[in-house]
Amino acid sequence: MDAAPRVPAPQSIRLPGIVLGVGLGGFADGILLHQLLQWHHMLSSTNHDRIGVKYYNPHTVSGLEMNTVWDGIFHTVCWVAVIAGLGILHGRVTHHRRAVWASRVLWGWILAGWGLFNLVEGVLDHQILGIHHVHGGPYQAWWDAGFLLLGALLLGGGGLWQRSGGPARPEGTAGPVGAGDDV
């Protein structure tokens, strides 16, 4: 009797999804808020911070240079998170690699990771350290609160979305897929 080929047990894609979400959320923050809108940089509020970091005025050439260096360090950490998330994901994907990219489970965890980024970055940098705010000025507390609310919505929505995904299966197949399942 010929035995059916043994399909390896699926591995969770929770960790790679969250790590990818943290990196991609950081990129969204850095590209949109730091570069395109120029609302803040990594050290743009250090004149009011809670840890005593020297103030680098982003409206001067030398201050903008220092803020740009720290924005670059921030983007490097985001890039490393994306590369790590892709590496972990690749290591967990079995023979149905295309199915995982269509998986609500993966995209739900990515959204949850983005929300986690917003919550940690918002509490740590905006509230505890005070090194920058989403948008400085008289309404900065509202902008910071909105950033935290967006993080909570992304985390909760991503968690719900990944639960609704179930196993991702390639067309015309039945049985376990592997990477699209979250165990």
Q: What does it look like?
A:
It is built from five helices and no strands. Mean pLDDT is 86; it is low at 168-183. By secondary structure, the chain is mainly α. It is elongated, with a radius of gyration of 20 Å. Helix content is 61%, strand content 0%.
Quick overview of this protein structure:
With 183 residues, the chain is mainly α.
State the main characteristics.
183 residues; 5 helices
| Helix content range | 55-70%
Topology order in helix (H) and strand (E) letters: HHHHH
Residue-averaged pLDDT, rounded?
86
Q: How many H/I helices?
A: 5
Q: What is the general shape? A: elongated
Which secondary-structure class do the elements indicate? mainly alpha
**Largest sheet at a glance?**
none
Low-pLDDT segments, ≥5 res: 168-183
Task: Classify the beta-strand content into a percent band.
Answer: under 5%
Number of strands: 0
* Radius of gyration over all CA atoms, rounded: 20 Å
Distance between the termini: 31 Å
Protein topology:
Layout: H1 14-36, H2 61-92, H3 97-101, H4 104-128, H5 140-165
Helix pairs in contact: 1-2, 1-4, 4-5
